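Dear colleagues,

I hope this message finds you well. In preparation for our joint manuscript, I am sending the CzcE family metal-binding protein (Herbaspirillum huttiense subsp. nephrolepidis) sequence together with its predicted structure, so that both groups work from identical material. I would be grateful if you could confirm receipt.
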Amino acid sequence: MKFNLFVGTVCSALFMSLAAANSMAQVSDPYGTVASQALPDRIVQVDGGTKFINVHQGEVIKFVFQDQSFTWKFDTFNRMSFEFGVIAPKNFANSKAVIYLDPNPLYTG
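The corresponding structure tokens are as follows:
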């Protein structure tokens, strides 16, 4: 009886780990993707004084610094915070700012 319980527990743990790995595998980039041709939901001006940027999952943001810009789509399942420099092109303003990714309000009842 103890052996059957042990086997069941191990199988359950294995199944759960595979399910978690599969959910992460469906996201090509955990931070989102470049969306150069997409129409942005909003435009965010970034400068040396920018400390944080709040965005929602699924949102398309055009980031602007002086004469530079890039557009990013936050198409990810993860709720997290990360440094702006992870997604910003090299030499873009204030790569130390923190991006706070919140759930899409359309899906949060």
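For the figure legend, we might mention the following. The CA atoms of residues 3 and 75 lie 44 Å apart. The beta strands are 33-34, 42-45, 52-56, 60-65, 68-73, 81-83, 98-102.

With kind regards,
E.M.
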